[in-house]
Amino acid sequence: MLIKKPADVASSEITPKRAYLSRRTFMAGAAAAGASLLAGRKLLEMGSPAQVVEAGAKLSTVKGPFGTDEKLTPYKDVTTYNNFYEFSTDKDGPAALAKDFRTRPWQVKVEGLVQKPRTFDIDDILKLAPLEERVYRHRCVEGWSMVIPWVGYPLSSLLKQVDPLGKAKYVEFTTILDPKQMPGQRARILDWPYIEGLRLDEAMHPLAILCVGLYGEALPNQDGAPVRIVVPWKYGFKSAKSLVKIRLVEQQPINTWNQAAPSEYGFYSNVNPQVDHPRWSQKMERRIDGSGFFASIKKIPTRPFNGYGDQVAQLYAGMDLRKYF
Ligand code: MTE
Question: Is the pLDDT reported for residue 34 higher than 50?
């Protein structure tokens, strides 16, 4: 992104902890993880949904559409190779720094040009629609990609609850502002809070999901707990994390990265191998699939709309995608 270009990403960043954790630490961690999983199950049995969805808790899901059978990115990489600048600009920083991030209580306001504005408690969001497992490709603007089994449901299910008015043309997403908990927000790396936006028809598209988990469990904090969006045909930065506000508006929102560097990050940011980032090519990507160190991963061609062209290309019919990048 603005701070690091792909060439700056050290190969060591891709296997951050795994490489140096001693077996003993690993075993202790595994035992703790097992214990918290068990605790989660117990709470589930006790019918206490307010607790069970804390990071790591098991979620029951149904298989969702648009899946791919490409090799999954290992859980370890999905949860230790993160962009979450509110915590750190290092890829392995958020996992450690977000460890104690509080995701309960948590509310998401859905407001603006809607008939029925509403504040949703996170536990109501979890129950709003059946949770689906959606295995999506995830392409970061920096040139790496993953395949992640997200858990969520169409964002449209939430938006329909508030009845958007005819005047609403865009949706703006706001991440929590909490510098006490988020060390990155104590520096002016970006203009906080992190804001993203979609056109309303993009937000209503069945591929766009409201995401509450991955790998069958509640979202780890570093991946945007307790709720984020996932928009798989766009560069990863459009998928804002840890949301507290969703606003329907008439004008195109000013998203954080576009505001920070307008010539580098457009509003649309559809994955497009034909339109280079001003500082690097977008033609190829390194798929993080557990096969080796970052620098040794063979590059593969990037596909238009991240391979979801059949589903979404018609949203942009007639638009010059070099201009609206
Ligand atoms: N959302 C917030 N609030 N802050 C961020 O720094 N980074 C974005 C996006 N959402 C970011 C964010 C970028 S650049 C990417 S690639 C994805 O989150 C990374 O999501 P992941 O860590 O779950 O892979």
Answer: no
DSSP string, 180-218: TT-GGGGTTSS-SSPEEEEEHHHHTSTT-EEEEEETTEE
C-alpha distances (whole Å) from 162 to each of 111, 118, 169, 246, 248 are 8, 7, 14, 11, 10
- Kindly provide the b/e burial profile for residues 152-183, where b requires at least 16 CB atoms within 10 angstroms of the residue's own CB: bbbbbbbbebbebeeebebbbbbbbeeeebbe
Question: In angstroms, what is the span from residue 84 Cα to ligand 1's centroid?
Answer: 5
| Interval between CA 42 and ligand 1 midpoint (Å) | 32
Ligand 1, atom 23, lies closest to the CA of: 223
pLDDT tens, residue by residue, 271-286: 999 999 999 999 999 9
Q: Shortest CA distance to 237 belongs to which of 192, 272, 270, 285? A: 270
**Do the Cβ atoms of 311 and 233 come closer than 8 Å?**
yes
**Do residues 226 and 103 touch, judged by C-beta distance below 8 A?**
yes
Distance 97 CA to ligand 1 centre (A): 15
Give pLDDT tens digits for 2-24: 555 444 444 333 333 333 223 33
For ligand 1, is residue 84 a contact (CB within 6 Å)? Answer: yes
Nearest of 56, 214, 82, 95 to residue 148 by alpha carbon: 214
Tokens of 222: 């570093």
Domains observed in the chain: 6-316 (3.90.420.10)
Q: What percent of the chain has pLDDT over 90?
A: 81
pTM reported for the whole predicted model: 0.86
Residue 46 has pLDDT above 80, yes or no: no
pLDDT value for 294: 81
Share of the chain above pLDDT 70, in %: 84
Give how far Cα 199 sits from Cα of 46, 113, 266, 269, Å.
Answer: 41, 14, 13, 12
Distance CA 64, CA 214 (A): 13
Q: Output the pLDDT for position 2.
A: 56
Instruction: Give the containing element (helix H, strand E) for 134.
Output: strand 132-139
